Amino acid sequence: MAINKVILVGNVGKDPEVRYFDNGGAVANFTLATTERGYTAANGTVVPDRTEWHNIVLWRALAEIAEKYVRKGAKLYVEGKIRTRSYDDASGNKRYVTEIYADNMELLDRKPEGQQGPPPPLQPSQPAQATQQQSVPTVSTPVTPFNEGEKDDLPF
After folding, report:
1. In the chain, what's the furthest Cα-to-Cα distance?
2. How far apart are CA 62 and CA 118, in angstroms?
3. 13-66: pLDDT as tens digits
4. pLDDT, tens digit, for every residue of 65-76?
5. Domains, the chain
6. What is the C-alpha R_g of the chain?
7. What is d(CA 13, CA 74) in angstroms, rounded to the nearest whole number?
């Protein structure tokens, strides 16, 4: 069995570029930045922030939703799969591109005050919700309580 699943939460790097085909289909492309926050280690070593840029591809209804509602700087939840493709550039060199083909997305920014209407639907098959913001799915892990008198087996 194989699983190709990507979940990203980040900020949109540029407004989506949307193209329409003769058959009425649409595709949207934009970048999404995810940042791991830096820190200072116990020994004083400073580890800076690390930002990764992801190429996001949306098809059909999701592309149309992105065209209407997704803007540069918006916080976005994206779920999909990784795809890599190659092409030959003008010089004849083989180039590789890694993209995230999104199946689902959620706008995480709050709706500005005074904006009318429901938020956009988040999946092509999901009807629009009348709520202001939908929550990102969460996974909870049961926590076993630790009593101070007990010895743990952790090496630190």
Report:
1. 71
2. 16
3. 999 999 999 998 999 999 999 999 999 989 999 999 999 999 999 999 999 999
4. 999 999 999 999
5. 1-148 (2.40.50.140)
6. 21
7. 8
